[in-house]
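User: Please fill in residues for this 330-position structure.
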């Protein structure tokens, strides 16, 4: 007997008069706004100028959408170019179908173009926007819920997802809500990157590499649970192999970058003010903590608190005495 389950929406589009409001597109748009907002706060905290993240996003977002769609169409070409299919559907991005691998790859190209035009180091920009991208993915995954797609194996767990549609080969029933698993995982990844960036002052692209590695480690097992059609290589889904490969590349970059370029960039944007460092907080072990960086990450931690809980921060007696003795901030 089914005691509980997560219901699927009866339809994935609402009409505001003649204007269609599609759930999938709405989730993507909200995710982009969150990523730009948080990225802007983190960029300013690192010493950048307000508005720079949004200016570069004008390049990165369209490239990312095109890359995500291209990856999906290429890896699932039979959905659009096999017998009985209409190739025009390949352009209907609002119906779902974005591959994160293509979105990040081509989005990075767009960001590189934007950074080059502004004379900004691409790794520093990537570090600033990394947690926001993870939060955007967490929000975007709910678009799959609206479309009743990308669910896992059948289950009768209380949090099972009910699929009611029978189109495109779907079989009504209750399944693992892999969209929800990945959404929660992405929230955890974002909080992990924020914490690690504060704790270890990650620079030169290492915060972004940590995001990539952490996301891939979750995507591999979540992908393994899915039951939708996919190409297989040596018994594993193509995206599982992609996640493993990208994970190894990200970890390699973390290790090599930490040895060759330790620390964080002193200047991230020419002509911008340097971040404010609290006096007395360049403590033992070479760690520093910026007041601006803490303030930038606080809203993100509050946003994630609904999923993972909020962690408080205490100031030690020694730090209080250092600040009182210095009388100013440098």
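Assistant: Residues filled in for all 330 positions:
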């Amino acid at each position: 007997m089914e005691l509980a389950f997560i219901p699927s929406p009866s339809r994935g589009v609402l009409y505001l008069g003649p204007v269609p409001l599609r759930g999938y597109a709405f989730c993507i748009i909200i995710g982009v706004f969150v990523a730009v907002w948080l990225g802007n706060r983190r960029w300013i905290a690192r010493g950048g100028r307000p508005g720079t993240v949004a200016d570069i996003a004008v390049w990165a977002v369209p490239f990312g959408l095109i890359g995500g769609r291209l990856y999906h169409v290429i890896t699932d070409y039979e959905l659009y170019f096999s017998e009985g299919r209409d190739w025009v559907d390949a352009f209907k991005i609002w119906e779902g179908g974005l591959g994160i691998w293509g979105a990040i790859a081509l989005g990075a190209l767009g960001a590189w173009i934007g950074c080059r035009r502004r004379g900004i180091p691409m790794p520093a920009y990537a570090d600033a926007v990394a947690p926001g991208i993870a939060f955007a993915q967490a929000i975007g995954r709910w678009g799959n819920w609206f479309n009743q797609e990308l669910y896992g194996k059948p289950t009768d767990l209380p949090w099972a997802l009910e699929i009611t549609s029978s189109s495109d080969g779907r079989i009504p029933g209750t399944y693992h809500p892999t969209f929800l698993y990945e959404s929660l995982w992405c929230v955890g990844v974002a909080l992990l990157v924020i914490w690690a960036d504060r704790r270890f002052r990650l620079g030169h692209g290492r915060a972004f590499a940590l995001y990539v590695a952490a996301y891939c480690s979750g995507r591999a097992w979540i992908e393994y649970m899915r039951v939708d059609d996919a190409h297989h290589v040596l018994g594993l889904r193509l995206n599982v192999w992609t996640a493993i490969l990208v994970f190894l590349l990200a970890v390699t970059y973390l290790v090599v970058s930490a040895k060759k370029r330790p620390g964080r960039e002193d200047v991230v944007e020419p002509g911008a003010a340097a971040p404010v460092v609290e006096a007395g907080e360049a403590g033992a072990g070479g760690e520093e903590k910026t007041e601006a960086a803490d303030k930038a990450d606080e809203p993100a931690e509050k946003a994630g608190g609904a999923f993972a809980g909020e962690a408080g921060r205490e100031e030690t007696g020694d730090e209080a005495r250092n600040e009182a003795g210095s009388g100013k901030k440098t």
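For context: The beta strands are 13-16, 19-22, 161-163, 173-175, 232-233, 236-237.
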